[in-house]
Amino acid sequence: LNVVVLISGTGSNLRALLEAIDDAERTGTPMGARVVAIGADTPEANLALATERGIPTFVVRPRDYENRAAWGDALLQEVQRFTPDLTILSGFMRLVPPAFVEALAPALLNTHPAFLPEFPGAHAVRDAMAAGATQTGATIMIVDNGVDTGPIIEQQRIPIHPEDTEATLHERIKVVERDLLIRTVQGIANGTINLKEIAA
Ligand SMILES: N[C@@H]1O[C@H](COP(=O)(O)O)[C@@H](O)[C@H]1O
C-alpha cells in the first residue's frame, strides 16, 4: 500500500505512523504499507520527518495560486506523481477542493480530534472545552466535500478532566488518534477495512 501523507504542522501523528511501519518491518511482520511521499501547504511543516528517512517531499502553498481550485489542482498533481493507493490528511489544516476529493476519495482519509459529528472544524479541542463537555474523542474518516462530514472509519471516546487545558487534552487525544490511524492503515493494507464499502 503506497501512502502519501499531507501535513501542515508538527506531524506527530505522521511520525507515529512512520515508526509503526518501521517497527513492523523490524519485527518481521511488515505492515504492507509504505509512505512514498510527504507533502505540505507550508514550508514551516515538519518535513524533516521525511528527509531524515529519504522520503520525497513537496510543498504547495495556497498563496502561490490565484484561487483555491488552482491550488487544489497543483496539489493533486503533486500527490498523483507518486500514484498513491491511499492519501492521508494528517494535521493538514486546509479544506481540499471538490476536484481533489473527486480524484482521490474514498482512498482519502482525515484525522480529527473529536468524536464526530460532535465538534467539527479547525478548533475541535477548544470547542469541546468551551461547551463544557465531559468527554470528546478522536475520529478517522473518509474525506468528502463537507467539513469533517465524511464516512467514519474508526473513532473512540476520550474523557475530559476538570484540570485539562486545551494543550493537555489535545495531547491525550493525539495518543488515541495515532493508534486509530495506525490501525486504519493496517486494516486497509491487510484488506480487513474496505473503504469503498464504508463510503457506499
Ligand atoms: N487536525 C488536527 O491537528 C493535529 C495535528 O497534529 P500533528 O500530527 O501535526 O502533531 C491532530 O490532532 C489533527 O487531528
UniProtKB/TrEMBL annotation:
Catalytic activity: N(1)-(5-phospho-beta-D-ribosyl)glycinamide + (6R)-10-formyltetrahydrofolate = N(2)-formyl-N(1)-(5-phospho-beta-D-ribosyl)glycinamide + (6S)-5,6,7,8-tetrahydrofolate + H(+)
Catalytic site: H112
Binding site residues for (6R)-10-formyltetrahydrofolate: R68, M93, R94, L95, V96, N110
Keywords: Purine biosynthesis, Transferase
Pfam families recorded: Formyl_trans_N
Residues binding N(1)-(5-phospho-beta-D-ribosyl)glycinamide: G11, S12, N13
Pathway terms, separated by semicolons: Purine metabolism; IMP biosynthesis via de novo pathway; N(2)-formyl-N(1)-(5-phospho-D-ribosyl)glycinamide from N(1)-(5-phospho-D-ribosyl)glycinamide (10-formyl THF route): step 1/1
GO terms for MF: phosphoribosylglycinamide formyltransferase activity
Domain (Formyl transferase N-terminal) ranges: 2-185
Site feature: Raises pKa of active site His: D148
UniProt keyword Transferase present: yes
EC numbers on record: 2.1.2.2
InterPro entries: Formyl_transf_N, Formyl_transf_N_sf, GART
Record-stated family: Belongs to the GART family.
Family annotation (HAMAP family): PurN
Summary of the function given for this chain in its UniProt record: Catalyzes the transfer of a formyl group from 10-formyltetrahydrofolate to 5-phospho-ribosyl-glycinamide (GAR), producing 5-phospho-ribosyl-N-formylglycinamide (FGAR) and tetrahydrofolate.
Entry protein name: Phosphoribosylglycinamide formyltransferase
Organism: Gulosibacter bifidus
Classification lineage: Bacteria, Bacillati, Actinomycetota, Actinomycetes, Micrococcales
Gene: purN
